Each structure stands twice: as C-alpha cells, then as structure tokens.
Amino acid sequence: MDRIVIVTGGSRGIGAATALCAARSGYRVCVAYLNRQDAADAVVQEIEREGGEAMAVQADVGREADVLRLFEFVDRRFGEVTALVNNAGILERQMRVEEMDAERLTRVFNANVVGSFLCAREAVRRMSTRYGGHGGAIVNVSSVASRLGSPNEYVDYAASKAAIDTLTLGLAKEVAAEGIRVNAVRPGSIYTEIHASGGEPGRVDRVKARIPMQRGGEVDEIARAIVWLLSDEASYMTGSLVDVSGGL
Predict the structure, then answer these.
(1) 0.85 exceeded by the pTM?
(2) What is the per-residue pLDDT across 51-104, written as a single tens digit (0 to 9) for each?
C-alpha cells in the first residue's frame, strides 16, 4: 500500500523539514500551504530532485471548504491519505491577555485548533477500518507552551496548543481500535520564522539559557521525531505527547 502523507503548514520551518524527512522515508507527500506558494514549490522540487514524489496544494485549514478540497485533491492525485501531520499554526505578537481582542483570539484558535480538528476528521474518514480504510497515523504538532503557559508573551497560542494535546488524547482513544494511531510532538524553542510573527525574531537565543541543553532546537530534530511517530517503529504508541525540547 502506498504511504501518502499530508503535511499542513508544509512550506517552511518544521513543516518543510517534515515533508522532506517523510519523502526520504518513502512517503508521497502533499505539502499544504496557506500563502507561500514559492516556498511550497521549492520543497516539492527538492523532494523531486531526490527522487521522491510530492505536490503542493494551497489551503487555509481553518476553512472547512479548503480542507475538503485539499483531501479530495489528494484522493484524486495520490489516493487516500495514510498519514497526516497537523503542523499548520500561527503566532501573533507578544502581549498580555488583557491586551488581546476577540479578532486575535479567533484567528489563533481557528488556525491552530479548528484546522487540526477538520484535517483530523477528514483523515479519520479515510483511514478508519470503520469506514473501510486500512488504518494510518496522525501526528499533531503541539508545543511545550501548552504546559508552560507562555505568560507575558502569547497565552492564547499556549492555550491553543493545550487544546491540541487534548485532541490528541481524546481522538487517540476514539480510533485506537480502528487502525489509527494519534500522537503529538511538543517542540520547545526551535529556530524557525514563527518567532518573527511574535515580534521577536531572536527569541530562541534570548531564552536558550533557560533550556537544560543550553541551545535552541533545529527543525530537522523535530521532523525526525514526527516521522518516527508516523512509522511502524512506533506501532504501539498512541495518545502520547512527546516533548522534543532540550529538557525544558
């Protein structure tokens, strides 16, 4: 059976590294992206240069119609998905809770939580033996912020990742007997562009002294953990929240 993975937010950072790592592990890869077509195309081209098969599909995972279109496109082009990486997410500028407005909260929770639920729903409908599927694996990308809270910076982002942790635990139990494993990776402070969205591109270097390993993480270190959880090497793992955080 073909191994087919959708990586949301796959055009840069952890998503791009995961798409490349999955392709090197034998997956046909759909790189789902919001608005960086050039970056998504570059990931696809790198996969193809290495002999893999990939495609890029634009989708706002917070919009149900876009999620339906994404999965239907993969159905037609590659076949039914066997793996999903819910990586797409956003971070807004650092501020305290009393400064946050409803529009910001809606943006963060729609992208980070609603999008993950919608993509997981479509994956389950295709993978579950209950619906005639052959099983599969889902990895949600959470954050150690879910248990640290990110005070004075982005409590809303941390709360959205706590919701991802709960999605992981609950969904894993729902579909465990239907051939689907659901796990999460919780990255710590990783060198990616997302920190610029929070208004502090150099945040990792500022906080790395608080990390027991005394350094920030690299995207490949997260990608390898994600792809391992997708693999048969993690065949008895479901409902696990795996911290990849340098000891934080």
Answers:
(1) yes
(2) 999 999 999 999 999 999 999 999 999 999 999 999 999 999 999 999 999 999
Asked if 194 contacts 150 with a C-beta cutoff of 8 angstroms, the reply is: no
Which stretches within 51-176 are classed as H helix?
A: 64-77, 102-109, 115-127, 145-148, 155-175
What CATH number belongs to 4-244? 3.40.50.720
Query: Using an 8 Å Cβ cutoff, are 93 and 199 in contact?
Result: yes
Q: Which residues are catalytic?
A: 157
Sequence spans of domains, the chain: 4-244
Answer for the pair 179, 197: CB distance below 8 angstroms, yes or no. Answer: no
List Cβ neighbours of 39 (8 Å cut-off, separation of 6 or more): 11, 12, 16, 33
186: left (phi over 0), alpha (psi -120 to 50) or beta: beta
Nearest to 3 by CA among 118, 132, 117, 135: 135
Residues facing residue 180 across a β-bridge? 136
Side-chain half-sphere exposure of 192, counting CA atoms within 13 A: 26
